[in-house]
Specification:
Oligomer: homodimer
CATH topology of the largest domain in chain A: Tetracycline Repressor, domain 2
Order of helices and strands of chain A: HHHHHHHHHHH
CATH architecture of the largest domain in chain A: Orthogonal Bundle
CATH class of the largest domain in chain A: Mainly Alpha
Radius of gyration of chain A: 20 Å
Number of helices of chain A: 11
Number of strands of chain A: 0
Number of domains of chain A: 2
Largest interface: A-B, 30 and 30 residues
DNA sequence: GTCTATAAATGGATAGAC
DNA sequence: GTCTATCCATTTATAGAC
């Protein structure tokens, strides 16, 4: 009764897991049904097709992402808070990584997701920009003309393409907690891009970076 | 006789054009044959399948790319030379843009292209690093510890993902010379990332950037 | 080298019984 | 809500005639 999970939700959960594992366009609706042990017809009763499933998953993703991105708006973050913030951001992206690995495929299949994804990218960029502004106001960082906007743009792009980049440069780790390693690398490669602009407490920041780097080694 | 283009080459040329226009996985072998006005059977006589076509195209791309990337090794470049260098790099990428737009799809279909693409990315990064070294030696730029390597890495990634990023942020321009605009934006967004590290001739560089920006407006 | 015809395989989708 | 059975469309791939 109360513990019984609805088939609709099980479909979404299974689809997400399979998409993340194999890539969206390698997984058919029949595959999803087969893994769940239900019939394709049953699956089609709940979702008219694969597009609808993907869009439903995107709804979930966008909602969670917007929530995460609202954190720095609510209150200013110090450097360590930002560390955690970026970590959570990457965790969220990693949870729905099939969007990021197969971006082109997904947007081809679901063209109406394109403007939504673009808007989310813009929101990332604006959020990062706001964070940088608050860091600058706190006197921790300083930017030359245009540098802050450029950095915000770059970091938003970095968030978006990091998984693809990492997949290309590092061997595809199939290990247990390889997800952790990928996230850690992502956080590190993000934070190090801020380093050149730091004007006070440079040493603690460098130490933090070094320690973080050691932990993931 | 001498003017007669071999069918094999026409297939490659047509496939490349279609892939770039519509995206690789939207174009079937039948489509290619139809556009050329030959039969699918004939196409299969020349290429065993789509993979083989894609790999042949990648052979061409890699060869040209390696040639372009060898330029800065042969002789040191000044700032203006580098401008041209980056422009040619983006032109080359744009000529085979279907690899970059649908990277995940392509690598799923042709897994043996993955290590080759990864090696090419590494070569880009090493080349950029060499260019930065020569600029630093000429006293035009200066880097803190680790900054040069980080910048080289970022620029190589930028070259690789620029098309995807631009496609997401800017409306898909179907105009005549939209390719030019995309390339110009790519060059600009690359060169501006070097700006923070310039220590001499800052003004001429800024002027160059501004002028370039005006041209593409 | 090139064609026609057709096979084989897949993935998306629906109808109707239970 | 769920299943079985089936159909349709697309794409890849091959056989054999010209």
């Amino acid at each position: 009764m109360a513990g019984k999970v609805k088939t609709r939700d099980r479909i979404l959960k299974t689809a997400l897991a399979l998409f993340n594992q194999e890539g969206e366009h390698q997984v058919s609706t029949v595959d999803i049904a087969a893994v769940m042990g239900i019939s394709p017809g049953n699956l089609y009763y709940h979702f008219k097709g694969k597009e609808v499933i993907i869009e439903a998953l995107y709804d979930d993703f966008e909602e969670e992402m917007r929530q995460v991105l609202s954190a720095p708006i609510k209150r200013a973050l110090d450097i360590e808070d930002n560390w955690v913030f970026v970590y959570i951001l990457f965790e969220e992206i990693n949870d729905f990584r099939f969007f990021y690995y197969g971006l082109a495929s997904v947007l081809e299949r679901c063209p109406n997701l394109r403007p939504r994804f673009a808007r989310l990218l813009k929101l990332k960029q604006e959020t990062v920009d706001a964070v940088l502004t608050s860091l600058a106001k706190a006197g921790l960082v300083a930017f030359g003309p245009g540098e802050q906007a450029a950095l915000a743009t770059r970091l938003a792009a970095h968030l978006t393409f990091w998984l693809q980049y990492r997949d290309l440069t590092a061997p595809a780790q199939t290990g247990k907690n390889s997800g952790r390693a990928i996230i850690n690398d992502g956080v590190y490669s993000t934070m190090i891009q801020i380093a050149p602009y730091i004007i006070s407490h440079r040493e603690p920041y460098a130490a933090l970076l070094a320690e973080y780097f050691k932990k993931q080694g």
